[in-house]
Amino acid sequence: MRTSLCDQLGIEHPIFGFTPSEHVAAAISRAGGLGVLGCVRFNDAEDLDRALTWMDENTDGKPYGVDIVMPAKVPTEGTQVDLSQLIPQGHRDFVQQTLLKLGVPPLPEGEDSEGVLGWLHSVARSHVDVALEHPIRLIANALGSPPVDVIEQVHAAGVPVAALAGKASHAQRHVENGVDIVVAQGYEAGGHTGEVATMVLVPEIVDAVSVPVLAAGGIGSGRQAAAAMALGASGVWMGSYWLTTAEYTLGNSSTQQALLAAGSSDTVRTRIYTGKPARLLKTRWTEAWSDEAAPEPLPMPLQNLLVSEAHLRIARSDDPSVVSMPVGQVVGRMNEVRPVAEVMAGLLREFDEAVERLTKLR
Question: Where does the record place a coiled coil (predicted)?
Fold first, then answer.
């Protein structure tokens, strides 16, 4: 499995692995793909710097990238305190009452309840600054095009920019803004995702832009990677599939337990995670938000600020039935815990088998 992106980025295989774990990202890079570390969980620039320094030392000199969360338009954020004042008390009461009903215990005394601030535009900009101090080979933005000045900053450092798109029109705007690689993320994908399925979306975007396109959403086998290439993609972008790898150390065992037990229909697309539509594992937490008495989710970044402490409490609760985790419909294929190297080897083997099978149809 090799395309022009391999030579451009110095990787062996056009398999891009997004993950919030530096351990998984480094293992993906060592296995010949491009590990892409999600930065949103880092509130402190020093913590991100430490994680990237660790990756510098544990990727065997192989390339890696980072993923940020930054809207193209700079929002008027104010301060964190000002934002918190915009959250209605009724929403706060609902979250606390729901956690109580679900039996989610409070955080241990003295533990930081600040939650994740990486959704804030100012924090995302600091992530870019820190990342460019390391030998990264790609910066991707989970919310589409970063602001043009950020794209120019990254290009000045000799680093290409990738952006996720859920429509062909979005992809075209990304390229007009200077984006180098478009990630065509279908409806099946975990996290922020649009309304068009991968099988339809990938060829639409490939035909609409002149830059390399990565296929994302519903890819969890070499057969599916081969299908993506047949649709015109230059590589695949995989996120969910790495959540049940042995190196995944962020979170706890209850998360992997919930993922291993889930089927492909056990996800839901909802705005309760960040305020924008995102696909999550269906649990008692997501079901509570679908109740008639539940309030409407707030816009980004207010929704994330609202539920950030709740997510910390859920993660500490060790209860698979309330896990709050972005994951795609490919979760139905995630049935065992395996090392990243074994997963990668399986993908490559299945890809070769699929291509060989197709050549026999000529």
Answer: none
Which residue type, as a one-letter code, is found at position 154? Answer: V
CATH of the domain at 232: 3.20.20.70
95-to-276, 305, 308, 310, 313 alpha-carbon distances in Å: 18, 12, 10, 7, 11
Q: Provide the pairing of β-strand 213-216 with 191-192.
A: unpaired
Quote the domain boundaries for residue 351.
4-359
Please answer whether residues 266 and 360 qualify as being in contact, where contact means their C-beta atoms are separated by less than 8 angstroms: no
Q: What is the pLDDT of residues 252-274, one digit of tens each?
A: 588 999 999 999 999 999 999 98
Helix (H, G, I), strand (E, B) or coil at 65: strand
User: What b/e readout covers 293-307, taking b as 16+ CB neighbours within 10 angstroms?
Assistant: eeeebbebbbbbbbb
The answer to whether the beta carbons of residues 222 and 353 sit under 8 Å apart is yes
Q: Omega before 320 cis (within 30°)?
A: no
Number of domains, the chain: 1
Global pTM reads 0.92
Write the CB contacts of 110 (distance below 8 Å, at least 6 apart in sequence).
none
* pLDDT tens-place string over residues 41-82: 898 889 999 999 999 999 999 999 999 988 666 555 444 446
Q: Is pLDDT at 118 greater than 90 in this prediction?
A: no
Angle ∠(18,21,27) on CA atoms, nearest 5? 75
**10 — alpha (psi -120 to 50), left (phi > 0) or beta?**
left
